[in-house]
Amino acid sequence: MLKNLLIKNYALIEHTEIDPDKGLNIITGETGAGKSIMLGALGLLKGGRADSKALFDTDKKCVIEGTFNISSYKLKSTFKDLELDYEKVTILRREITPSGKSRAFINDTPVRLDVMKKISEKLMDIHSQHDTLQLGSNIYQLNLVDAYGQLEKKVEHVFVAYKEYRKTAQSYQQLLDEYNQIKEEFEFNQFQLKELDDADLDDIDQTELEMELEKLENAENIKVALNTVLEALSRSDFSADSSIYSSITDLNGLTDYSKKLSEIRDRLDSCHIELRDIISEIEGEEDALFFDQERIFMIKETLDTVYGLQQKHRVQDLQELIEKRESIRSKVDKVESFDEALLEAETEKKAAYEALMEIAETLSEARKKAIIPLTKELNKTLADLGMPNGLIEIDHRVTEPTVIGIDEVEVLFTANKGRAPQALREVASGGEFSRLMLAIKYILASKTSLPTIIFDEIDTGISGEIAIKVGSIMEEMGKSHQVFTISHLPQIAALGSKHYYVYKDHGGDSTVSKIRTLDQNGRIQEIAQMIGGAQPSEGAIQSAKDLIGIK
Predict the structure, then answer these.
(1) Where in the numbering of this chain does the RecF/RecN/SMC N-terminal domain appear (predicted)?
(2) Which of 165, 333, 467, 516 could be joined to 356 by an S-S link, Cβ 3.0–4.6 Å?
(3) Where do the domains of the chain lie, and which CATH numbers do they carry?
(4) Mind listing the pLDDT tens digit for each residue in 194-204?
């Protein structure tokens, strides 16, 4: 229940504060006086869009603060889920700075707007003329059935099951699309893979083959050069080998005379040993080297294959070519193993669909059961609201599963006896829409713990005896719920347990909207003016007293 509402620096309101009654609260005033400003302020507490243009004084921040007594409502788990401290008296506050920045608080804790929405929707139901128009929507009508049948948990279970089904369906479709795409390339990939496999790339050292080919193609030149080297080192009369050997022999006769000469002889001996080893290796290379045309052909054939594949697959080296081969192999293997993956994905999709349908059919049966008493109560309430010939029927159809189940409903209506009901949005007038919406709110009020219901001119299009009946319904709702209604009808205004009057004050530098609580005399005067104009007659004043119930 809303205990206190503070509005500062919002729209035409500089500062106002009200302490509503727990029953039926009436808000009246001339057109344009600012009656809907309170709804706008409460809309901000419900997470509505904030705009710096709404500031009364653009140099100061706007503050909207609602204090709610929630001690009798089971909201502890909601606060816990949202990681908020639970307080029996909870304060919701919105602030808008001159720069347009908006901040939201719950019990002085900063929160995101979506968090404020989740809390405020448990505390207030604001009905506007837009909601009346929504009544023609099939989705809105289905939501009414769910609210009446208290099926929110079942709807949530369908929502979760549908999300899981859509997830598996999308995975299956994605896999199928991928399979079809890869399958088109399968034969080409198979051909490419065979070509790469036949090349035996893992057994090839491209760098080594390129060096060997260059060596074989220059074998004669290399052989000539090696023979020249061997001639200088060992094959001529004055070769390095014989010269060093002769020098060692000469030094052998001098080692007894000098230790230093002995060391030099030893070093020269080591050089001779190293030289003989070098000569031996050069001779081995020279003996092994010959022009092998067949080997040259084989190497060229292998390298031509590698070069061709590298060019074909646009890679720079053998390693990249091997990586390309493995990538193609993966695609081929994937197609070959797709049947199993597709079957598994299709099985998961089918299981998720069956689980969804089981839950959706349970919800559908519950909806069908709820439609029967809902229809009866609506027709009875419409009769109470002055529509004895009005008839409501709710048509139910089974559809393909969606996020809200497998049901679609259509509210059918006729206001005239003997006429078949038709789609509500096609036949109902504005006044009939308003009364039907009031009937719905009245019936749902008994099904919900929602503490505060707010009506914005739901009495549009009605008058006279019908207005009295509408007022009686609101008065009845006020016995179990806190109700606010903005009204232009004296029959309804007279039934309030608390009456607020909204007016414009032109006394200052700027026009401001103000709201004041009317005492008994104030109520009589305001209702009399609603009946007879700015200067009500004695008859109008007496009528006001009669409506209020003052003798």
Answers:
(1) 1-508
(2) 165
(3) 1-129+449-518 (3.40.50.300), 182-336 (no CATH)
(4) 888 888 888 88
